[in-house]
Design brief:
854 residues; elongated; 8-stranded parallel β-sheet
Length: 854
C-alpha cells in the first residue's frame, strides 16, 4: 500500500496514485476569498427532453398568431393579440441565420429559442435583386423564400416574426440599367429611396411579392398571416444622419430640387425665403435650375445665429417632413394597397446629434404604429476588421455598463401612445461582462415600458460550437473570432430567468419621471430638449446642470433608470412635467439611482444593480466587496468578483410562497486559452483604460466558478436541483432548513448555471450523529466526483476526515478540515458503499454511509 500526500490531504490505494488538493488551498468555487477556477461549458445538442425542469416553451402560444394579429392596446403603448390577450416579447435577431440551415436545423433553432424564452424573431435582410441584367422591380427569390420558411418554422414554436426587408448596407450591386444616376455598381444607396421615385416605386414592387404571394410553407400570404407581428419599412437609414453628407451628385440634385419646391410652398417665392434668412445664400443656390443648396448636416449640430439659423431650421423642417411623408406613403402602401394587417414601423436609426436632431427623427417616424431604434452596448473595440471579427492584437475597453449607467441601450424617450422596440442590440464580443445584459434589459424594460429588445444575433441552436473564421491564420494557429454572435454563454444562456420575469410582468412599470411636450418649431430650431439620449454624462461627477455646458439638458440622462420618460410632439411645452422626487431618486453624489417603483436600485459607483420584487429578486455586478445582499425574501452571499444572480418564481407566486423557483447564475465566460492584458485604448483622440487581446483561444468556453450561498424566506420548498445546460436534473443539492426562522439555505455548486427549487421530497442523506454532535451534513449522496460537507463550529475550528471502504480500510484522509462548508474532491475509487467519519478534538466522532460511483 502506498501513501500519497499533499499539503493537508492523504489517501491510500492499492492500485492508483493521485494527488488531491485540499479545497482550502486552491479551490475557488466554495472556499470564500480564494482565486476562482474555471469550469468547462460542455454544451452538446439539446435533446429537448420532456423531463427538463427548465423549458419556457409553454410561455408561447401553441402556434404563433392563434389568438389573432398583434395590435396596440387601448392606450397605444403596449401589445395585445386581436382577441385582447396582453403579450410581451422577448426578442432576437437571427432570422437570416437560417440561410445556412437545413429544415431540420431550422426546426431545432426555433425549438431552442422557444425553450430559452424567445417569442419574437426579426429577419434582417434585403429582398431586392442585385444581379447584373436584372430589372429594377425584380426580387431575390432565394431571400424571399428563406423569409417564408423562417416565418413557418418559428410559427410552429409560437414565435412571431418581424420582417425588415431592406437595408442599404446589404446592397452589394446596383445594375447600371436601373437608371439611378450615379448609383450603380457597388455604391450603397443611403437616403436614395427618400428622394428617388423610381427606387421608391421599385421597393413597393419588391414587398408586394413578399407579402401578397402565397407562402408555400404555410399556404397563406404573409399579409394575412398573424404570425408576422411587425413590418419594418427599412433598416438604419435616414436624412438626418451623417450619411446625408455623402450623397452622390445625382441624388444631391434631387434633394436640392425638392427643397426648392418645398420653399415655394412655404414662402411663395424664393425671394421671400431669402428675406426671412437675412439674405443668407449658398453658392450652390441655382434658382434658374430650380435648385436650392443644402448645408451639410454638421451645420444642424451647431449653435447657429441670425439668418443662417433660420435657413438651417428650414432645412431641418424640410428634411424631416419629407422623410415623414415618405414613411406615410409606404405605410399606406402596406395597409391599403397590399392589405397587410400587421403593425408597421418606419425605421430604427439615429441622427448626427442626439440633442439637436433625435426628436425630429422620432417625429418623422410617428406615422408608423411602432417606434424603434438600433443601439448597441459598444465594447469600444478597435483594430483592423474590427467591424466583424476579433483578432489577436485588437484592443477594447469593455467597461461594464453597471459603471456607465447613461449608456444603457433602453434609456429611451418614448413618444406617447406608441410601443417602442430596440430592434438591434446586445453585449457583443469582446465584452466580458455579458451576464449583466439580460438582467438589466429585463429589469429596465419592465420599469420603463419599452416593449422589446432584439438581441443581435443568435447563430445556432445552443452555443456556437466554433465562433471563429477558419480561413484566418495567426501565430500559434489562432483564428479570428466572430464578434457579433450572441450564441455564447453570457448571452443566450442568460435568457431564461430574465425572459420569464419580463414576459410575466413580475416587475412593476413606473410612472413617468419626465413628460416632455415639444412644439414642432422647437424641433426645426434644434432647441435642446428637457432630456436627451446619448447626452454626455460623466459618471464620476456628483452634480448635473451647473450651467457650464451649453448642450447640457435640464434633466440628467440617467433619469431613465428612475422611471419612464415620455414625449409628445406638437404639444404644449407648458404641460411638460418632471417628477418632484426625481433628484431624490437620482442621488448623483452617492452615485445611486432608485426606481420610483422601489424595485430597482443601481449603484454605479461600485457597479451593482439590485432587483427586489415579490416574484423576482437578484443582483448583478461586482459583488464581492458589498456582499451580503439582503432583499425582501432572499439573502445572497457571494465572494464573486463579478456575477449575476436571479431568483425567480416559476409559478406566478411571490418567492416566499412559490413552490417552483428558478435560480440562475452568470459569471464571466471566455474561450479556453483566451488571454488579454491591460492596455491603453485610444478612440477619437481620447485614451481609455482597456485591454489588448493576446490570444483568441479555442473551444470550449470556460466559466469562472461562482461562490454563492442563498437563503430564502420560504416554508414550502423542500428540494433543490442543479440542472445541466439543457435544463435537466443533474445533481440534487442539500436544502438546509431553519424551521424557527421559516427559511431555507442552499449553497450553489461552483459550476452551476441553473437551479430549480421545488416541493419534491428530498433524497439527499444527512449524516448519522454520535457523541452529542449534530448538524454534520454531506451531500449529494450517492456521490460521483465531489461532495459538500458541512461541519458545525468546534473549539479548535478543525476536524479530520476519514473514509473507509467496506473492509474497514482507510482509503482517504484529510487531516486539517475547517468547520463550515467545504467542497471535497473524492479520489478515484471503485463504486461501492463507504463509511465517512469526522473526528473532532477530544476524539468526538460522527459517521455516515457514503455511496460512491452510483
Amino acid at each position: 500500500m502506498k501513501e500519497v500526500k499533499s499539503s493537508h490531504c492523504t489517501f491510500y490505494t492499492n492500485h492508483f496514485k493521485f494527488t488531491i488538493v485540499c479545497v482550502f488551498c486552491i479551490l475557488g468555487g466554495i472556499a470564500f476569498g480564494q482565486p476562482k477556477s474555471q469550469w468547462i461549458i460542455d454544451y452538446e445538442d439539446d435533446p429537448f427532453s420532456e423531463e427538463a425542469l427548465l423549458d419556457l416553451r409553454y410561455l408561447n402560444e401553441e402556434t404563433a398568431g392563434e389568438n389573432g394579429f398583434i395590435r396596440q392596446t387601448g392606450n397605444g403603448r403596449d401589445f395585445e393579440t386581436f382577441n385582447g390577450k396582453p403579450i410581451r416579447f422577448w426578442a432576437v435577431n437571427g432570422g437570416e441565420s437560417a440561410k445556412n440551415m437545413s429544415d431540420i436545423e431550422l426546426a431545432r433553432y426555433a425549438r431552442f429559442l422557444a425553450k430559452i424564452g424567445v417569442n419574437l424573431i426579426r429577419y434582417h435582410g434585403s429582398i431586392c435583386s442585385s444581379k447584373n441584367g436584372s430589372n429594377i422591380n425584380d426580387v431575390d427569390m432565394v431571400e424571399i423564400n428563406n423569409i417564408w420558411r423562417v416565418v413557418a418554422a418559428m410559427k410552429k414554436e409560437g414565435i412571431y416574426t418581424a420582417i425588415s426587408p431592406f437595408w442599404a448596407g446589404h446592397v452589394s450591386n446596383i445594375p447600371e440599367g436601373w437608371g439611378l444616376g450615379d448609383y450603380k455598381g457597388n455604391v450603397q444607396p443611403w437616403a436614395l429611396m427618400y428622394f428617388n421615385n423610381e427606387y421608391k416605386e421599385a421597393y413597393k414592387k419588391w414587398v408586394e411579392v413578399l407579402y401578397t404571394h402565397v407562402n408555400p410553407f404555410t399556404n397563406i400570404a404573409l399579409k394575412d398571416d398573424p404570425a408576422v407581428a411587425l413590418i419594418q419599412i427599412k433598416n438604419e437609414d435616414g436624412v438626418l444622419f451623417w450619411t446625408i453628407q455623402g450623397v452622390l451628385p445625382s441624388l444631391l440634385a434631387d434633394i436640392e430640387r425638392a427643397f426648392y419646391t418645398w420653399l415655394l410652398n412655404k414662402y411663395t417665392t424664393i425671394d421671400n425665403a431669402y428675406s426671412e434668412w437675412n439674405n443668407t445664400r449658398l453658392t450652390t443656390d441655382n434658382i434658374t435650375a430650380q435648385r436650392m443648396g443644402i448645408y451639410i448636416i454638421w451645420e444642424a449640430t451647431q449653435n447657429q445665429t441670425g439668418g443662417k439659423a433660420v435657413r438651417v431650421a428650414d432645412q431641418v423642417e424640410f428634411l424631416t417632413e419629407h422623410q415623414r411623408a415618405f414613411y406615410a406613403e409606404i405605410v399606406a402602401h402596406y395597409k391599403t394597397t397590399l392589405g397587410c394587417k400587421q403593425l408597421v414601423n418606419a425605421n430604427n436609426w439615429r441622427t448626427a446629434s442626439a440633442n439637436y436632431l433625435n426628436d425630429a427623427e422620432r417625429y418623422s417616424n410617428t406615422v408608423g404604429d411602432v417606434m424603434a431604434v438600433n443601439r448597441y452596448q459598444d465594447p469600444q473595440h478597435i483594430g483592423e476588421n474590427n467591424g466583424w471579427r476579433i483578432d489577436p492584437g485588437h484592443k477594447f475597453v469593455g467597461k461594464s455598463v453597471l459603471l456607465t449607467p447613461e449608456k444603457l441601450s433602453v434609456n429611451i424617450k418614448q413618444p406617447v401612445n406608441k410601443p417602442f422596440f430596440v430592434t438591434e442590440s446586445g453585449w457583443n464580443l469582446p465584452h466580458k461582462y455579458q451576464s449583466e445584459g439580460p438582467f438589466l434589459i429585463s429589469a429596465y424594460m419592465s420599469l420603463t415600458g419599452v416593449d422589446g429588445y432584439f438581441w443581435f444575433v443568435p447563430t445556432t441552436s445552443g452555443i456556437d460550437p466554433y465562433p471563429y473564421f477558419d480561413f484566418t491564420n495567426f501565430p500559434g494557429g489562432q483564428k479570428a473570432m466572430h464578434r457579433w454572435t450572441a450564441s455564447v454563454p453570457g448571452q443566450v444562456l442568460m435568457f431564461p430567468a430574465n425572459a420569464l420575469l419580463y414576459r410575466k410582468g413580475y416587475l412593476q412599470e413606473g410612472t413617468p419621471v419626465v413628460h416632455e411636450e415639444r412644439l414642432l418649431t422647437s424641433l426645426w430650431n434644434q432647441t435642446i430638449p428637457v432630456i436627451s439620449e446619448e447626452n454626455g454624462f460623466d459618471p464620476n461627477r456628483d452634480n448635473w446642470g451647473n450651467g457650464t455646458d451649453p448642450e447640457e439638458t435640464e434633466v440628467a440622462p440617467v433619469a431613465y433608470l428612475a422611471g419612464p420618460v415620455h414625449v409628445t410632439y406638437g404639444g404644449d411645452p407648458a404641460s411638460t412635467t418632471v417628477a418632484a422626487n426625481l433628484n431624490t431618486l437620482m442621488n448623483l453624489s452617492e452615485k445611486r439611482i432608485t426606481s420610483n417603483t422601489g424595485q430597482l436600485s443601481w449603484n454605479y459607483k461600485d457597479g451593482i444593480c439590485i432587483m427586489n420584487a415579490p416574484s423576482a429578486q437578484g443582483v448583478s455586478g461586482f459583488l464581492k466587496t458589498k456582499s451580503p445582499f439582503v432583499l425582501s425574501d432572499v439573502k445572497i452571499v457571494s465572494d464573486d468578483e463579478y456575477a449575476t444572480i436571479n431568483v425567480v418564481a416559476m409559478d406566478d407566486e411571490p418567492i416566499k410562497s412559490s413552490e417552483n423557483i428558478l435560480v440562475q447564475i452568470g459569471t464571466v465566460y471566455r474561450p479556453t486559452n483566451w488571454s488579454e492584458t491591460p492596455d491603453k485604448v485610444k478612440i477619437n483622440e481620447v485614451e481609455y483604460d482597456g485591454f489588448r487581446v493576446l490570444n483568441t483561444g479555442v473551444m470550449p468556453w470556460r466559466a469562472i466558478e461562482s461562490g454563492i450561498r442563498i437563503t430564502l424566506k420560504n416554508t414550502v420548498i423542500m428540494s433543490a436541483y442543479a440542472l445541466n445546460l439543457h435544463g435537466e436534473k443533474s445533481t440534487e443539492i442539500y436544502v438546509k432548513r431553519n424551521e424557527a426562522e421559516g427559511t431555507i439555505e442552499i449553497r450553489v455548486p461552483k459550476n452551476a448555471m441553473y437551479l430549480v427549487l421545488n416541493t419534491d421530497d428530498p433524497t439527499v442523506v444527512v449524516s448519522t450523529v454520535h457523541e452529542q454532535r449534530s448538524g454534520i451534513q454531506v451531500y449529494p449522496n450517492p456521490a460521483k466526483k465531489t461532495i459538500l460537507l458541512e461541519i458545525p463550529q468546534n473549539d479548535s475550528g478543525e476536524s479530520q476526515l476519514q473514509l473507509f471502504d467496506q473492509q474497514g480500510r482507510l482509503v482517504f484522509r484529510i487531516d486539517q478540515l475547517a468547520t463550515g462548508t467545504s467542497e471535497i474532491t473524492l479520489p478515484l475509487l471503485p463504486a461501492g458503499l463507504y463509511s465517512l467519519q469526522i473526528v473532532e478534538p477530544g476524539n468526538k466522532r460522527s459517521t455516515t454511509k457514503l455511496a460512491i460511483g452510483y
